Amino acid sequence: MRTGKILWPTDFSETASHALRYAIEMANLYHVGLKILHVVEQPIGDENYMLLAITPDELAKSMEDEAADKMHKLLAQLKTELKVETVIRRGNATEQILEEIDSDEVGMVVIASHGRTGIAHFLHTNVAESVANRAKCPVLVVK
C-alpha cells in the first residue's frame, strides 16, 4: 500500500492533463494527497551580448509568476476532495522532479510522456523516461 503522496509533474500541456486524471485516481485509491509540481527551466542569456532586455533571473521570475497563475487556475478547476499541494521549482525538470521524489513524501509519480519517436526522441530530452529510469519509487507514465 502506498503511503506517500502522488506526485504529478506538469508542464500544463494537454498531454500532462491526461496524466492528472490518473494521478487523482491513484491518490483516491490509496487515500493519499496529491502534489503538483511545475519546473521552470532556468533561461540562458549572456548579458554581455545584450540578448535579453532583462536578466535571466528576471525572466525566470516572470515565468514562475505565470506558472503560479496557471496553477491557481488549475486548482480552481479541480473537483476533488483530495489534499492538494503545489510546488514550483526552478532548474532542470528531470533533476527537480527527482529531488522532489527524494524528499520521502512521494510514494508514486504519475507523469505524462509526450510520445516522441524517431529522430525527435533522440533530439529532445525525454523527462518521463529519465524520471522512470532514475526514480526510487514507482512511476506511471501516461501517453
From TrEMBL:
Residues 5-143 form the UspA domain. This is Universal stress protein. PANTHER family: SENSOR PROTEIN KDPD-RELATED, STRESS RESPONSE PROTEIN NHAX. Belongs to the universal stress protein A family.
